[in-house]
Amino acid sequence: MDKQAIIQAEADYVLHTYNRPEIVFTHGKGMFLYDSDGNEYLDFTSGIAVTALGHSDPDWVTAVSQQATQLTHVSNLFHTAPQAQLAQKLVENSFADKVFFCNSGAEANEAALKFARKVGKTHHDGKTKIVAFTGGFHGRTMGSLSATYKSQYRDPFAPLVPGITFAPFNNLSAAQEAITEDTCAVIVEPIQGEGGVNPATPEFLHGLHAACHAHKALLIFDEVQCGLGRTGTLWAYQQFGVLPNIMTLAKPLAGGLPIGATLVTQAVANVIKPGDHGSTFAAGPLVCAAANVVFDKVKQPNFLQTVQENGAYLKHRLQTLELEQIVEVRGHGLLVGITINQPAAPIMTAARDKGVLILTAGEDVLRLAPALIVNREEIDTAVSAIAACLEENI
Ligand code: PLP
After folding, report:
1. What letter would DSSP give residue 200?
2. Mean of the pLDDT values across residues 238-252?
3. Which of 44, 137, 166, 170 is least enclosed, having the fewest CB within 10 Å?
4. Which residues sit opposite 246 in a β-bridge?
């Protein structure tokens, strides 16, 4: 199929939920993507914070290829080694005691909300209320969508799951008012991704933890976008020194294959029984073989140290550009948001035309989420392209 035929077939047959540029990607290597016209792109999107090891990491390719020849799927009716190994790694390297596997971020949050409701029903007089936050994004399934703030995503599908209210993000006193004895859980991204790369303040997360503790509510951290090394620590919560009761993961965990995980403490695990929740595809041998490679690489202290250093370098480069178009540069590690004094989408398009792929997060925020293997030279290239686009688009 040639490029135009592909684009036409998509227009004819794929439900129009995404607006795509007229580019057909054919392959990727490390930090670079290549299209059907032979153009090379420096990828500062990593498939929206997914391909943590870059494209076609050799160890990842070997693990997936070998596993594919051995065993791909048996369902969760049976034991398989890669899943057991991954679960052990996640638990032994986090606050958690048990993990539930699924296939996406939305599903991981769906599970978190269900588990929290069951804890409330089992131990706390049937309480079911959930507090979420302005600017939060937790996914598109009915439960996760109900905890997602943007009305544009929510309103067409109302009525949504009842019992979820929104408090202002980073406003502790308002959150303290919203969290009551009827609250079974509070769900929050330690660093909001889609909402504009907004880090929570440490005081806010510490305050949420205390309020949850006081009202016997569970604290759920959605680390789907900010977890697993992206901030320069294995988990984003380590940047803040606050432990959740439940944490959700997805995007980078299998380096490009679909996976989600809901990590829980033993107290949460105790209320969940066989048959309460499940998934046919979740954490099959193929995806877990991939995830084991990603996890083993990302958790290395020198890998995380490099993410921290390169993240600081990226932020410093952007902060010292001294362009009047840049209002603020923020984020942790390699999740960086740049608020600009103009719409972000045209700058994203202009950068793409210069061969650099970046993301937006809201109207006026450029979002950078390169693979965690990015190097300084690649950072310099991306920063120069963004600066040139901002200067040209005055
Ligand atoms: N939670 C956060 C913080 C996200 O950024 C996303 C996706 O962008 C999701 C949940 C939903 O993940 P998925 O698209 O895998 O369902």
Report:
1. P
2. 98
3. 166
4. 220, 264
- Give whole-number Cα distances, 290 to 103, 108, 189, 227, 260, in Å: 13, 18, 25, 17, 13
Binding site membership of 224 for ligand 1 (Cβ less than 6 Å): yes
Ligand 1 pocket, mutate which of 18, 46, 103, 194 (most atoms under 8 A from CB): 194
- Closest atom of ligand 1 to 194 CA is 5
Residue 64 resides in a domain: no
Output the CA 223–ligand 1 centroid distance in Å. Answer: 9
Indicate the burial class of 163 (C-beta count within 10 angstroms; 0-12, 13-18, 19 or more). middle
pTM greater than 0.85 (yes/no): yes
Burial class for 27, CB neighbours closer than 10 Å (0-12, 13-18, 19+): exposed
Q: Hey, what amino acid is at 232? A: G
Same domain, 254 and 342: no
Pair 109, 256 in one domain: yes
Q: Which domain, by its residues, includes 188?
A: 71-298
Give the burial string for 381-391 (b: 16+ CB within 10 Å, else e).
bbbebbbebbe
pLDDT digits (tens, 9 = 90+) for 65-115: 999 999 999 999 999 999 999 999 999 999 999 999 999 999 999 999 999
Assess whether 378 and 282 both reside in one domain.
no
What pLDDT does residue 241 have? 97
Instruction: For residue range 11-36, list pLDDT tens digits in order.
Output: 999 999 999 999 999 999 999 999 99
In Å, what is the CA distance from 211 to each residue of 79, 129, 130, 135, 180? 39, 14, 13, 20, 8
CA distances 322 to 294, 361, 377, Å, are 37, 22, 20
The pick from 153, 198, 220, 225 for probing ligand 1's pocket by mutation, whose C-beta has the most ligand atoms within 8 angstroms, reads 225
Whether 331 is covered by a domain: the verdict is yes
Would you place residue 330 in the very low, low, confident or very high pLDDT band (cuts 50, 70, 90)? Answer: very high
Ligand 1 pocket test, pick from 222, 224, 360 with the greatest ligand atom count within 8 Å of Cβ, gives 224
Residues 142 and 156 in one domain: yes
**Total domain count for the chain?**
2
Please tell me the distance from the alpha carbon of residue 331 to that of residue 191, in angstroms, as a whole number: 8
For residue 84, give both structure tokens: 């057991």
